Structure prediction request, 205 residues.
Amino acid sequence: MKKLLPAIFAFSCLLTGKVNAQVFFSDDFSNQNLPNWTVTNLASGSTVLWKWSNNASSAGSSAGTFNYAGAANGHLILDSDNDGDQTGNTTPEYTVITSQAINCTGKPAVILNFSEYYARYHDTVGVYVSNDSTNWTLVHNSGSLLNVNAATANPNLVQTNVSSVAANQAKFYIRFSWKGDWDYWWFVDDVTLRVPDASDAAVVS
Prediction:
């Protein structure tokens, strides 16, 4: 039987210091053709993919709505609850969306920010970064603090320091990875990279 989402337990990241420091990459996903990103299907036979939307809603049986002001002009969504294998519930789903190469040359420290709303069932998610598009480092796991049938804050504002991979790199990549089997959803919007302001304190994801 399809799972239900009777209760939502939220968590949010701690944002400290200023967030208006030098932004050198940003994508608000207002372009539905996603020119700066590549969607890859890693599960043969699956039709569940990262996609563009501007209605801020999952169309699944356990509907979710992204309560983020910027979502109306476009955002990413992984909508397993609607697009998944609802009949047999046996088809693996595995999709990633990867940014273009981003130039971080001359940036000695780099902070990644984005907004999300994610509900967990039995799926596996992660935000990864790389400077060679081969070796990937996990920098944020949206489900790490969530029980089954729980969700993040809506929206959850994520801020994490990716300097160990991005600093002074001519090519830097961001990847949102989702793997599951008829689960819930993951909304993502307003991805930015910035050089931290001198008054930035600790960054906790």
Q: What stands out?
A: The two ends are 34 Å apart (CA to CA).
